[in-house]
Specification:
- The protein is an alpha/beta fold.
- It has 30 helices and 29 strands.
- Strands 13-23-24-25-21-26-27 form a seven-stranded mixed β-sheet, with helices on both faces. Strands 3-4-2-1-5-6 form a six-stranded mixed β-sheet, sandwiched between helices. A six-stranded mixed β-sheet has the order 11-10-7-8-9-12, sandwiched between helices.
- The longest helix is centred in the middle third of the chain and has 33 residues.
- The chain is elongated, with a radius of gyration of 38 Å.
- The N and C termini lie far apart (90 Å).
Length: 880
């Protein structure tokens, strides 16, 4: 588009080029009448993404302009497709009435829509937040240097900021999962590489902003100005930092893109790593906390299994609780007390959930009201929600737990606002402000009069005609309307002389005359414009009601927060009651004792078929459990289950178990499954080692570590050596609670060497040629993996299975465990060849000659005995 000669363009196209130059990275939707038109490259993008026809403007000229358009009333449908395809969209509206315009209609870009700045319900997922993030890396580039991260959910106004070490940024973004992330355009090569990792791993759109904007002092001042405060200490920020720089960049970006007041952003919440149990990206993925690995669906994840919420606000709140479990005892117990009370009160809980079901999305409605984007249906939805608050509050008054008592007080019914909406907005109001029918009959006298004029015109004309007949005595007199001549009184030529003064001739027909009167002229003046004037007045009154509601934004957000929290607590209580969960006892010790625990996701899908298991970790039970057993027997399920139960407990939730005592956890680490990052040049084994290194370097004695098949991505002896060393390091240096599932049976020998290592295995029963997996974890070790049996179940051909069994029998008959490995001084020693390379198997059978030589005591051997021994050896060799 840079080569376009604007001199040969029409005024409208020059206007288009002016705005396109201001928003070159966005698809510019240019309002022309009832359509939004796009031109040049934008037209080709829209045709491809939206599936609409690509035509051209000035098609008969030598340089036709590509053109594609969409109806203005279908904007939201097409916007969603463009944004989901990763495009930004600039909306260029007509800002004056075309009928009153002199020359070209004035236009302006009224909003820039990006993936992180959506507020419309049609563009958002109800149960999921849509976050815009900003990252400030500062000047230092090492992984331990501080970084500032801020993120906002524009549709609700929830705004957060956090300072952390750079090495934790990707983990935090994995929890937030922003749709868009703002980064500086002034980064060095290392920082640019890091931002590319953000794009690849977090799956968000990167938007570059001027580097000078990422300034701590400037961000601090921007935030103070926005919130109208002299200091940010009331928000928990004692001095400018990198997180405030990031938050300031977000506010600047929103001011630029939204072009409206951002009054609904009323606070900034400081997030501290010490407040929440930390979950890195590997843990979120491996445990399938909020989405499954296979298809990214919520169904089959922990979040999907726990979601019994009745409102979209509650669903979003539950996701926050799942991704941000607590790690401090008092707030966890406060949530537990609330859930416990609701578990015991079946009737009250059901009443709560019935009331919640009728509550609409107050959070997002409040934002649309505050930004002036609410439509009549939004106010009706808000009225419906607020009408349920008194009922909700009355139910909650029966509760005594501190958290529910506080929530009761925050359930503000806001009677005056509810009454205003009820009296002003018609229940039949539609989506569009310009369609009319918004204001309820009886709210405004002039609206009622104009509405009667436009709707009851025929009745008035009939009444006026009757009146004239009575006054003139002319029975054939008729009052009518013509689109060309307007309203008229028609009288035949025979009776025209009987008309009194005041009838002015308007039109002569063949057999009659048409007249106009002052009264009819006044009616015509009003009637012909009544509908439009009524719509204009309705829009004005609606805006007044909306502004009044906008003044209550902060109170609405507080009510929404309370409703969402009640919804989550009631949902957790509901599932705890119906699935027989227990309240875990959380304490400051490091012990973890779970009796008959069940996997929270499989417990839903399998029900009574799922086999529960115990978990015992800590000072008295051992810090590290080595779990061996066959594939498909349930090792991975067991260790994941333990991590998920710990996570649920730290949410304040009940858990699927008979009983549980869980010491506080600061972080959950997992190294589970095999995956590669080929786009980053990392093999499966490299990813495995990176994730394991993260655990070894960052775990504390308060952490919970889940390891599955560490070392399997390389050769047997390399893998075994690494697995042994890593397990030994965790058990002796970190001493954190750890579950290690492995097929390296040699690792079980660590339990003989270290007091805090215990062995467990998955119970198996063999009968004839069949193997039955009992899925029960019992104490002790196993030395069989039943891999060939699993291969048969998977459908490997019989001849391959038969040959595999033959090879296995041969290897086992020739393989001496003592020749393979033996313990010397508490260390694992392996045989090597002449080049020093580890041998996978020693297939040589025991040699009696060598055994005889090994047993000879050379120091006490006489010369004659030595000669005889040589003769014996020679004779044996000759006989071979």
């Amino acid at each position: 588009m840079t080569d376009i000669d604007t001199q040969n363009l029409t005024p409208a196209m020059r206007q288009y080029m002016h705005f396109k130059s201001q928003y070159p990275e966005a698809v510019l939707l240019f309002r022309m009448g009832d359509f939004y038109e796009t031109f040049y490259d934008d037209a080709q993008v829209c045709a491809r993404v939206l599936g609409i026809a690509l035509t051209s403007r000035n098609s008969k000229s030598d340089n036709p302009i590509p053109l594609a358009g969409i109806p203005y009333h279908a904007l939201d449908n097409y916007l969603g497709k463009l944004v989901r395809a990763g495009h930004k969209v600039a909306i260029c509206e007509q800002v004056e009435d075309p009928a009153q315009a002199k020359g070209i209609v004035k236009r302006d870009v009224v909003r820039l829509i990006t993936p992180g700045t959506l507020t419309e319900d049609s563009l958002l997922e109800e149960s999921k937040g849509n976050y815009l993030a900003a990252l400030c890396l500062g000047n230092k580039t090492d992984l331990n240097a501080p970084a500032g991260l801020a993120w906002i959910e524009l549709s609700t106004g929830a705004f957060y900021a956090q300072v952390m070490e750079r090495r934790f940024v990707l983990d935090e973004l994995a929890r937030v999962r922003p749709a868009e992330c703002l980064v500086s355009d002034d980064l060095d090569a290392d920082q640019r590489k890091f931002t590319h990792e953000i794009r690849d791993l977090a799956g968000c759109v990167l938007t570059h902003r001027p580097g000078w904007g990422f300034d701590t002092h400037q961000g601090h001042e921007t935030l103070k100005k926005h919130f109208g405060v002299a200091s940010l200490e009331g928000f928990g920020f004692t001095k400018p930092d990198l997180s405030l720089a990031a938050a300031g960049v977000i506010l600047d970006y929103l001011t630029e893109t939204q072009k409206v007041a951002l009054d609904h952003i009323g606070t900034l919440r400081k997030v501290g790593r010490e407040t929440f149990l930390q979950l890195d990206q590997a843990t979120l993925r491996s445990l399938e906390v909020e989405r499954t690995i296979r298809d990214g669906s919520i169904h089959g994840s922990l979040l999907g299994a726990l979601d019994q919420t009745r409102t979209s606000m509650g669903a979003r709140k539950l996701r926050l609780w799942v991704c941000y479990p607590l790690c401090q005892l008092e707030p966890i117990q406060k949530r537990q007390d609330a859930v416990a009370e609701l578990v015991q009160m079946d009737a009250l809980r059901d009443q709560l959930r019935d009331a919640l079901k009728e509550i609409t999305d107050i959070e997002r409605i409040a934002t649309r009201i505050s930004t002036g984007r609410a439509v009549p249906r939004d106010l009706l939805g808000l009225h419906q929600a607020l009408s349920q608050i008194p009922r909700l509050r009355d139910i909650l008054k029966e509760c005594a737990s501190p958290m529910l008592t506080q929530l009761t007080e925050r359930c503000d019914p806001m009677e005056k606002l509810t009454q205003l909406i009820d009296s002003a907005i018609s229940p039949e109001a539609g989506l569009s402000i310009r369609d009319g029918g918004i204001i309820r009959t009886g709210y405004h006298a002039e609206i009622d009069r104009l509405r009667n004029l436009s709707q009851d015109g025929q009745a008035w004309l009939a009444s006026y005609q009757k009146k004239l007949i009575e006054e003139t005595g002319i029975n054939m007199l008729k009052v009518g309307f013509n689109r060309v001549f307007g309203y008229y009184v028609e009288v035949s030529h025979l009776h025209s002389e009987k008309l009194p003064p005041g009838f002015v001739r308007k039109q002569t027909l063949k057999n009659a005359e048409r007249y106009i009167t002052d009264e009819l002229k006044r009616y015509e003046s009003e009637a012909l414009t009544a509908e439009q004037r009524c719509k204009d007045l309705e829009e004005q009154l609606f805006n007044e009601v909306r502004r009044e509601a906008a003044g209550h934004t902060l109170r609405l957000q507080q009510v929404a927060e309370a409703v969402a929290t009640v919804d989550v607590l009631a949902g957790l209580a509901h599932i705890a009651r119906h699935r027989n969960y227990c309240r875990p006892e959380i304490h400051h010790e490091r012990d973890m004792d779970i009796r008959e625990g069940r996997h929270p996701v499989l417990d839903v899908s399998l029900g009574s078929q799922f086999v529960p298991n115990d978990v015992a970790l800590g000072r008295t039970s051992g810090d590290l459990a080595v779990i061996t057993g066959p594939n498909m027997a349930g090792k991975s399920t067991y260790i994941r289950q333990t991590a998920l139960l710990a996570l649920m407990a730290h949410m304040g939730s009940y858990i699927p178990a008979r009983s549980a005592h869980i010491g506080l956890v600061d972080r959950i680490f997992t190294r589970v499954g095999a995956s590669d990052e080929l786009t980053r040049g990392q093999s499966t084994f490299m990813v495995e080692m990176i994730e394991t290194a993260n655990i070894v370097n960052n775990a504390t004695d308060r952490s919970l570590v889940i390891l599955d098949e560490v070392g399997r991505g390389t050769s047997t002896y390399d893998g075994l050596s690494l697995a042994w060393a890593i397990t030994e390091h965790i058990a002796t240096r970190i001493r954190c609670r750890t579950l290690f599932a492995t097929h390296y049976h040699e690792i079980t020998e660590l339990a003989d060497l270290l007091d805090n290592v215990k062995n467990y295995n998955v119970s198996v029963r063999e009968w004839k040629d069949e193997v039955v997996f009992l899925h029960k974890i019992i104490e002790g070790r196993t030395d069989k993996s039943y891999g060939i049996h699993v291969a048969r179940l998977a459908g490997i051909p019989r001849e391959v299975i038969r040959r595999a069994n033959e090879i296995l029998d041969e290897l086992e008959s020739n393989f001496s465990r003592e020749a393979h490995t033996r313990r010397i001084g508490g260390k694992l020693e392996k045989h090597r060849n002449e080049d020093g390379q580890m041998l996978l198997f020693d297939l040589s059978p025991p040699d009696p000659i060598l055994d005889k030589l090994r047993t000879v005591d050379l120091n006490n051997l006489t010369p004659m005995q030595a000669i005889n021994l040589l003769h014996e050896i020679k004779k044996e060799l000759e006989n071979r």
